[in-house]
Amino acid sequence: MTTVPWRLRCTQTGTEYDGLDRRFYSDTGATLDVVHDLARVGEQVDLATFDARLSSKKRIDRSGVWRFRELILPVEEQWIASKPEGATNLYESSRLASYVGLDWLGLKHEGENPTGSFKDRGMTVAMSMAKRLGADRVACASTGNTSASMAAYAAEAGMRAFVFIPDGKIAYGKLAQALAFGAQTIQIAGDFDKALQLVQEVCDREGVYLLNSVNPFRIEGQKAIGFEMLQDLDWQVPDWIVLPGGNLGNSAALGKGLLEMRELGWIDRLPKIAVVQAQGANPFYTAFQKGEPLVPVQNAETIATAIRIGNPVSWQKSLRGVDASTGIVTEVTDVQILDAKAHVDAAGIGAEPASCATVAGAKRLVSEGVIQPDERVCGILTGHLMKDPDTVVQYHKGEMDALDESTRNAPVRCDATLDAVLGFVN
Ligand SMILES: *Cc1c(COP(=O)(O)O)cnc(C)c1O
C-alpha cells in the first residue's frame, strides 16, 4: 500500500518502490527516478496556476521550486524546508549574444539562489524528504556547491551535516560557506569520486541521509530551473537550452522535467539540450561521440572545479533528455571557459568558471553550425561569481593563460599623490 502519491522507479528495469522507501538504488543497483501520477497533476494544475502564484505572497508560491510543487513533490507543507529558493533572473545580454554569435541569448542566473548556486533547488526538496523521513543527520560529497547548500539548509532544519570534500580542490567561497554554516567538513585525501564512494558507505552503515544527486529528490527540485525558465519566456519553448555537465544531475533534471511537461501537454515540443563538459573531465562527451557506454576518466582536471568529475552518477538519466530532444554533448577547454567567463563577468553579470562553460559551449556550437545564429538559445549560469574569487584575481593578474590578453583587467599600483592617480583616470 502506498503512502504518498509519488513512486520510485528503477531506471534499468522499471521496478517500482514506495515513495517513502529510503533507498537510492534499486535491487539491481541502478539509480532511481521519482515518478509522479501525471494524470492527477494535470487535473490539479495548469500553466495558469503557476502564473497566478507569481503574485502570491505565500512563501511556497514565491519559491521558484515549490511554485511548481504538484510536479516536483506533492509532500505535505509541514515538511517543506524552503528559504525560498529560485526566482532567479533571466538576463538578455546583447553583448554576450554577439560574443557567442547569436541574435539573442538568454542566461538564467542560478547563482542568484540563496547560497549562490542551483544546488539550492535540489536541496530544498531533498532536505524536505530528509525531514519527512525523520532523519537527523545528512551528508554529501561535494566539489563545493552541494556542501554549501546542504550546510545552509541543514542549519535551518536543525540537522547535523557532514561534508566530504576532495583534498585541496575546492573553491574558497564554497568551503567558507560549509564551515560558516556549521557543517562538519571532512577533507578526504582523494578525488571527488573517492569522496562520493566513502560518503555512500558511511550513509549505508550509519543511517545518515545522503544528499548527493544520486538522491532522486535532488533531481526533482532541479527540474524547476527549466519550468521557471519557460515561465520567464511566457511558456514559449526556446530552440536550445545549454548547460554545463559534471555529475550530470542537472541536465538529467532538465530533461526529465521537460519530458513531463510535454506529456502533460503543457509544451508541444522539446528544446534541444546541449550539455557542455570541460575537456579534462569529459567522459560524457566521449561516450556521446562514440555512442558507447560511459568510461570514467581517471584524474579529471579542469579549472571549473564544479564539473571536475570523472565518473558522473547520472549519465544515463542525462542521456535520456539529450536523446529525446535530439540535443548534443560538447566539450570546451579551460582557456575557452576562462575567456567566456571574462566576457560574462565584464558584461556585469558574472558567474563561476563552470557556469561559463555554458557560454563557451554555445559559442563553439554556433561556430560549428550546430546552433544557427537566429535560433533562440537559453543558457544556465549555474553558480555565482563570488564562489571562486581566486580564479578571478589570478586571471586578471595574468597568472593564468588567456585566449585574449585584452580581457585582462589587472589592478595597478600607484603613488599616493593626486597627480599619479589622475594619470590613470584621464
Ligand atoms: C554542481 C554544479 C555543476 C554541475 O552540475 P551537475 O549536476 O553535477 O552536472 C555546474 N556548475 C555549478 C556551479 C555547480 O555547482
Set down the secondary structure blueprint.
Elements: E1 7-10, E2 16-18, E3 32-35, H1 38-44, H2 47-53, H3 59-62, E4 90-92, H4 94-100, E5 105-109, H5 119-132, E6 137-141, H6 145-157, E7 160-166, H7 172-180, E8 184-188, H8 192-206, E9 209-210, H9 216-232, E10 240-244, H10 249-263, E11 272-278, H11 283-290, H12 315-324, E12 328-332, H13 334-346, H14 353-367, E13 377-381, H15 389-396, H16 418-425
Parallel strand pairs: 5-13, 6-7, 6-9, 7-8, 10-11, 10-13, 11-12
Antiparallel strand pairs: 1-2, 1-3, 4-5
This protein binds pyridoxal-5'-phosphate (PLP).
Pyridoxal-5'-phosphate is lined by residues 117, 119, 145, 213, 244-251, 306-307, 352, 354-355, 382-383.
Walk me through this protein's architecture.
By secondary structure, this protein is of the alpha/beta class. The longest helix is centred in the middle third of the chain and has 17 residues, at 216-232. It has helices at residues 38-44, 47-53, 59-62, 94-100, 119-132, 145-157, 172-180, 192-206, 216-232, 249-263, 283-290, 315-324, 334-346, 353-367, 389-396, 418-425, and strands at 7-10, 16-18, 32-35, 90-92, 105-109, 137-141, 160-166, 184-188, 209-210, 240-244, 272-278, 328-332, 377-381. Helix 9 crosses helix 10 (249-263) and helix 13 (334-346) packs across helix 14 (353-367). The protein has a domain at 90-115 and 216-407: Rossmann fold, CATH 3.40.50. The chain binds pyridoxal-5'-phosphate. Pyridoxal-5'-phosphate binds at residues 117, 119, 145, 213, 244-251, 306-307, 352, 354-355, 382-383.
